[in-house]
Each structure stands twice: as structure tokens, then as C-alpha cells.
Fold each of these.
Amino acid sequence: MTESIRDDILYDLERVAALHHITVVDVDRLSMETPDSSIEKSKLILMNPTYEKCSYEFRLAHELSHILFGNGCSDEVYQFSPYIKRGKELEMHKHAIDMLMDIELPTSPFTFMDFYKIPYWLFDYVKSKFIELA
Ligand SMILES: [Zn+2]
């Protein structure tokens, strides 16, 4: 996967958002430590472009998943974390991986991990998904 397709992937994710009437806002001037967040009920995603843990595309796919796969009722504010390995966060990480692989099938699970800066502990899932689709 080369850098030149990053814009196309982002475009596809933005189309998913538009199709489901999800508002995505890039919030400027946040600290690099401030994670992205989303609110299911409001169909609102607040992205921090300067946050560096994981790629923007992976994080956006994760936040989109909260809204697409949530029950639509929760007004809880979900904050992105690359460290939480269970519950809804794990579930949305998996949905994000599925979504990104559907957009562009990588040449290997390693290039996928590297391109999207996915936390290493998700490698087994990435590998199994790749094998399923390849
Ligand atoms: Zn989350």
C-alpha cells in the first residue's frame, strides 16, 4: 500500500459518514495527547488531526464503527484508546479493520499494520481477516 492511496481511502470513509448522516469535525489546536471522540446518539465524531497514535484513517474507521454498530441511543462520549483490549473498544477496532480491508485489500497483514499504524496486539485479528479475504 503506497501513500498515494491514502486520500482515496479517506474519501471512501468520508462517503460512509455522509451516507449515514454522520458529522465528522477535525478539531484544531488540541494537544497531541487528546484522543478522538464520538457520540452515538448525536452521530458526531470529533477528530484530533495531531493525535499520533494510530493513523487518522484507522481512528476515523473506529469512530464511524461506534455510530454504525452502536444501538444509536447511547449519549456516552467514546474516547479513542489504542490500549483498551476488551468490550466496545475491541469490537470497534475489529469493525475498523474490516472496513479498511473492504476498502483496500492489502498485499499482506504486515503492510496493513504498518500503513495504518495498528496496535501490534491486534495483529492476530488482522492476519485472520486477511486470510479470510485474500
Ligand atoms: Zn472507541
Amino acid sequence: MVSTRSKYRRDIEDDMRRISTLENLISFVEIAMYKPEYGVAMTHLDVALSVSSAQRDTLQRYLPACLALTPNLAILELTITPPFTSFSFARIPLPYLEVVKSNLTHRSLAPFVSVRPRLQALDIAACGRTRKCPLSTVYVQQVTDIRCPLACVAGVVHDGVERLQLDHSRFATLPSTFLSKLPVVLGTVYVLTVDFTPDDDSILRAIAAHMPHIRDLKLIEYASSLVHKHAARPWHNHAGWSSALQRLTQLEQLVIRTSGSLGTVAGDHGAKRDVFCRWVGLAHPHPTLRYIMVWQHARSVHRGVLSEWSRADGSWKGKWTVTPDADQVSMLS
Ligand SMILES: [Zn+2]
């Protein structure tokens, strides 16, 4: 979920309600109709429902009613399985809505988000069956925190976005190809998390070209189990990788999760140091980079090797952990 959620969650924990069955939804609506202050007090609603085709009409009736009874919502999480295509609640006024997380198709979301002037964070799943992302026609300049599929990035993201998380969604297209379709340089993005594939040699170069001012970068490998752990990764091209890092002149933290490796012999810490030294530059040290973490052979928590390389007082130090615990890799899980 986009980061804004945690900020709000602390403030409004008492006013959050999770609805996980259709019966929950119906009883929520009935109580709120009888006791309006019950719905008015809600600021965070998390609706996660699996519905059969026979239950769709009931959902169509009760979901808009539920939203109409919770006018003070700041956070709405809406996950309907299978994904829902409905416009019946698009115009319900939710004047304080700031965060939306949903798996609705983007065609359904477009009319809903287009009338939310206070929306700050958007966390959305697959687009749906459309050739062009329907959100590309919607004005969401006020949204500064976005998580969306890479396939939709050119349509959804705009200059002014500060935090971005991009999920891989289409096997046939490299993540860097989606980034190269961005119509503008996103000079305001400073936090980026992006899925990459092992064969995407241009991923870091594409990031440097389109988001040159990022300070915090997480690269999450999106690999099928068929990809061999020894297959080449983008950083195995040392020169290209180092030169792209040098172009990210404000980068402070780089974190990578991969089922592959840094390309060194397991346990050879000297070789790992050499790799990291090349990344941060020897003759021309990177001006801002101060922390690198690579979780190698990362197929599940408690597996793999964590290699950390950090700079304090001008000198770099390494730390290597075999089988990291959940806390150490929580930012990458
Ligand atoms: Zn889309």
C-alpha cells in the first residue's frame, strides 16, 4: 500500500472498520441507517469481499449505500474478487477522501477518482481490458503518492508525483520499456520502488533518464521460477550499471531484492567489496550514495544472503548476513 496509509492509520485507528463478508456489509448499512453517527464516525473503511455472480446485485445495492453513510472517510480500501466493474458509487461525495486503494478496473476507477480534489495517494491493481489506460484521461495532479502497474505508468503518473511504486504486470514487455514511454521527466519523484526482470539491462538507465532526482530506490526482481539463479542480472554489466548510478546524483539509498547474485563466489566478501566499490565509484565517488543493500538468492524470508554496504564518516563498510530474519528484509518482502 502507498506510504500515506501508515501516517493516517496511527491517527484514526479507532475509526477503522474492516468489512470482509457481504453479511458484514449489509449489517453495517443497517446499523448506520438506524444510527447515522456510527457511519459518520468512520474515517477508514477496508472492504475486502469475494462475491459470486448471484451476489453482485446485492453488492451493487449495498456498497453505494455504505459509502453514502460514511461521509468522513479519509481512507478507502476496496478489494472485490473477482474485480468489480461498476460506476454506481462514482459520484458519492466523500469530501475528505485522501487515500484510495483498490483492485477495481481503471475504467471503473476513473469517474470515481476524477471528483476527489483532496486525494493524495492512489494504490491500484491491474488495469482491465482496455487498450489505453482509462485513468490517462483523468486529472489527478493532486495525487503525490502512487502505486500502479508499470503498464499504466505513462497514463497515471504526472509531474508533481513524489513517491512511486510500480508493479510489473505484463511478461512480454520489459519494465524499462514502460518507463521510456513516460511523456515527461518526473523531476519531483524522490522515492521509487519498481519491479524489474533479470533480463532488463536498461532498467537503471531508464530510471536515471526519467526520474533523475530519486533519493531512495528499491528494485524488486520479478522473476519466474524458471529463471536460473546464475543468469545474468543488469548489474553484471559493471560499466553500464556504475554509469547509470552516477547519473542519479541525489541517490542516497539503493536496495535490491533478487533471486540471483552479485556475481561473486558465495562467501567471498573481498569480491563483494570489489563489486560495491565499482558501483560507488573509485576515481569519482558517488556524491550522495550512503547505503546499498542487496538481498541475494531471495526466494523467501529466512533464505538467501544479505549484503550491506554503508558509508559513515566518508569510509565504506560491508556487512554480510546469511539467512536474514524477517525484520532485516521487511522493506523488501
Ligand atoms: Zn490503467
